[in-house]
Task: structure prediction
Amino acid sequence: GKVFERILHSNSVPTERVVIEIQESLIEQEKQVAEAILNYRDRGYHIAIDRFGSSQSHIDRLWKLTPDFVKLDIQLIQQAEQNHRVLKALPGLIKIIKDLGAQAVVTGVETQTQLDIAIESGANLVQGFFLAEPVTAKELQSSSQLKKIITNTKIPSASDLELRQIITTM
Result:
């Protein structure tokens, strides 16, 4: 914790710009996780529950832990593309996440169809190879490199155009 915060401070990165991801499987240790979340949140960090839906998910954990983001497990978008029942349920799950005050992140988007499903289901954010390949920290060192990565994504949507406009004004 302290070493990490020193690195952030020495690079002028405010804690409010950092999201700490906690895998859903670790939430079994509810008391320790809740204490850690409170500690990090008090210091300005945002919290994300990662891989939600990968194990026995319990919605009650979300309102107890109050994450800022809930990252849906990659299997959900894959199943939504193949299974009509999952496709119908996904918007409801995303609505519950939003109603609890978190942003819903659909992960594992690898096709245009999956991107369309995520957008139509109401996801706040999407993540996956279809949008951008993983890059090293070194590749993100300058804002011009970040702009290049974002403007070369394959997203032909209005939200992408808005994102590009925001980035170009940086």
User: Anything to note?
Assistant: The first strand starts at residue 19 and ends at 23.
